[in-house]
Design a protein that fits this description.
alpha+beta, Rossmann fold, four-stranded antiparallel β-sheet, 10 helices, globular
Amino acid sequence: MNTNMLLQQLLALPTVLDAMLSPDGRWVAFVWYRIHPNRDVFVAPTDGSTAPITLTHTPEATELVSWTADSRSVIVSEDHSGDERNRLFRVDLDRPGVMQALTEDRPSYFIRGGDLHPSSHTLFYGMNYDVATDQTIEATWLYRHDLRTGERIPIVRPLRSTWHSPELNRAGTRLLYTRQDRHPAGTQIYLVAQDGSADREILNFGDEVKIEAHWLPDGEQILVIADAHDGQAQNHKSLGIYHWPSGALRWLIDDPARQIETASVTPGGLIIVDEVRDGRHLASWLDPASGAETAFPRLPGNLLPLGRAPDGAWIAFYYAATWPAELVRFTLEARSPADLVSLTRVWERTSLMSQQLASVEDFRWTSVDGLEIQGWLYRAQPNLGRAVIYVHGGPTGHSEDRLNPKLQYLVTQGFNVLDVNYRGSTGFGLRFREAIKEDGWGGREQADIATGAEALIQAGLAAPGCVGVTGTSYGGYSAWCQITRYPPEIIAAAAPICGMTDLVIDYYTTRPDLRPYSEEMIGGTPDQIPERYRERSPIYFVQDIRGHLLIVQGAQDPNVTPENVRQVMTHLDNHNIPYELLVFDDEGHGITKPVNQEQLFTRLARFFDAALGAGH
């Protein structure tokens, strides 16, 4: 097939990015990508009786925030060109396309969450804004917003910012929220009444321990997922139920052999356990009353259940490298993808076939200190002896057996592609995730990536001088690290996308709710450890670049701001280091609009083709 035609098909391939079941289980709302020119919210009945219904259709990226208690409306958010300054809307299922504005347009602050009280008169969310002084602030305060009068009252004033969203129980009486006041690496869970009274800490297992908490439907029990439960470091996550009226906590899973990544609560009150081993999801469900656990079917690819429909069928995400993420119905008797019933009917919307896509294989190598590193390898046919390493963002996250149009397109252009899960990635256990903090950002995880390039060369998948690297966010930062640290025989070209160049500039210009993450990962603030911030900032080592460089940036990025690019360009020019620059004026943190991705993907292919040549 003509590769240009394949690119158009990839950029039009519908992909589900996020989904939530309604409280009554009769509907699933989801963000669908590549149906419209941008992301939009759709809804489908869980019985599969009709095709998905369009709830929003705008030029901007619209994201799903929450369901209303009556299952008849959703709360959605929308920014402008990826600036992440969201406005909240209500959209009723019986009035699709009508977006009822709940908050102001183009705010100076950042909103976290958005839960509507069952009365429909009050909205709860977090934001870094002081209404009384009309000033943006560093901390994320929890607000009660009266939609009838417009009055916004802060009911909780934490000391520090956090990206976590508050969560209202189904009865609308209390909110769970997360504080990060004690230490940037840890979280504590608080409970407050909807009127702002009875604010108190309920879960604290140590200043540096992370806790995640979610309501069960009864509004009294709370699902708890914690990195430790007694203040002592552990290499696994524990899962339990906390009953807030009595203060009783019982652990359901506390097993060092389990690699629980996260968990969620279904509308019916069951617990979905997401265990991830070697980057693959192995989901199960728990009865919180009995503690009985049942495994979901093990299928090729990844099956991530959301909950049950009223008729007993399970609703889930399903995806693989050769299968775009979609929503499906299934029973526990399912034994193959053919047993899944699609709610989104993705294959009816494309002429592309699964067989045209490159599958992945597990690829392993040893890093400089003997640690085994895993990646997903896509083989080009024929093997031209050149490769591109893709580095995922986060770094708290992981690459998986999932369709990535950018990587699929690079494979069609004759590049073997290695998608790396360096230390610090999730999906390989808590110890592996935490290992990145032993050195801090820019430490041995960069050696994990570089030794991946050497492993490609040793395996005959790339000739020396024929390996490039790219990635977005932390992947972009890693691309900068690779091109400034390693000779062209190992890393010959880099295309950082929205990547940090100066960690001090990044710290002070990024969103305030992301600063604690930098402190956790680097080991402190720029004032506390200025030497580490400098030595881990690629901007100070651009004079060592000997390979090819393409810089990609979204001009509206509030996360890794364009100031990173402006500053590094000055350093590059001062040292007479050649580079190419590609800026998208209507993009934020990552290049996401399909029309812009077409330009990006083709530019990346041309860049790596010129830089890496024909291989061998």
